[in-house]
Amino acid sequence: MVLKNAKLELDRILNGIQDNESSIEDLAQILELSEQPKRIEGYDISHIQGSDPVASQVVFIDGIPSKQDYRKYKIKDPNVFVGHSDDFASIYEVILRRFKKWSRFKKSGGDFSILNDKTNSKLDNELLSDWPDLIMIDGGKGQLNAAIKALKELNLEEEVTICSLAKKNEEIFIPGFKKSLDTDENQKGVLLLRRVRDEAHRFALSFHRDKRSKRMNRSQLSQISGLGPSRIRELLEHFKSIDAIRIASKEDLSKVKGLGKNSVNDIYKYFNEL
């Protein structure tokens, strides 16, 4: 029974590897790439009508999520705020921030040809090992153009291979073409991009919810008399959530570093006399 289960698991793993390989090969054919993309990065924006805007960067290596390489971005553009969202500006900002070091690398005379050789020993101990073979933007032609605008500003438009995936009809857009590529939404290469897109969306949404929750917690605590930003931060670090603070006893509250008797009474009274 053990041997049978082990064989079934091995077959499952081998089939998964073969499926990933064929998906990557198909994607390379769709995009007419000279080499199969080993490292694919996906980007997505998340917000609610401009509030708490964030972005995600997910990484797939050999068709498999590499979660230790994921990154989160808080959108800093002052023109993106509550009631005014701008996904194009957000994508532009994220790509600009992500590839700024590569612009410096190019200006300093860096050789991009060595980046395509993943076995190159020169990359082992350098930050340059995170160069993507392909980046995918969640969205249509507009989102793609925003990313290209950032790459042009960095003088990297000829170095980076980029595409976007529009969710409505699972259409793939690439630079230089007004129309989407002629693809089947269920072919293996497209399905791989969809997995990258869906993971980028999931990761961005998770970060957005976390950021929004923290903001709302701080907003509620700021209504309590005498609680400044530092005390609010200490409370949340100690209890981890607003719900834990809500049910805390005075004795529990008094254990928070720097929280005096009056503050303890004010917090307890606020949540127990609402």
Give a written overview of the molecule:
This protein is an alpha/beta fold and 274 residues long. The protein has two domains: 2-211, UvrC, RNAse H endonuclease domain (Nucleotidyltransferase, domain 5); 222-272, Orthogonal Bundle (DNA polymerase, domain 1). 47% of the residues lie in helices and 15% in strands. It has nine helices and seven strands. The protein has helices at residues 2-30, 87-98, 100-107, 141-153, 188-221, 229-239, 242-246, 250-253, 261-272, and strands spanning 39-48, 51-61, 64-65, 71-74, 134-138, 162-166, 171-173. Strands 1, 2, 3, 4, 5, 6 and 7 form a seven-stranded mixed β-sheet that branches. The mean pLDDT is 84.
Q: How many β strands by DSSP?
A: 7
Largest sheet: 7 strands, mixed
Ends distance: 60 Å
The CATH superfamily of the largest domain bears the name UvrC, RNAse H endonuclease domain
Number of helices: 9
Question: From the 3D coordinates, which CATH architecture of the largest domain would you assign?
Answer: 2-Layer Sandwich
Shape: elongated
Could you name the CATH topology of the largest domain? Nucleotidyltransferase, domain 5
Low-confidence stretches: none
Order of helices and strands: HEEEEHHEHEEHHHHH
Summarize the amount of helix as a percent range.
40-55%
By secondary-structure content and strand pairing, the structural class works out as alpha/beta
What is the CA-atom radius of gyration, in angstroms?
A: 24 Å
Strand content: 5-15%
What is the number of independent domains?
A: 2
Mean pLDDT: 84
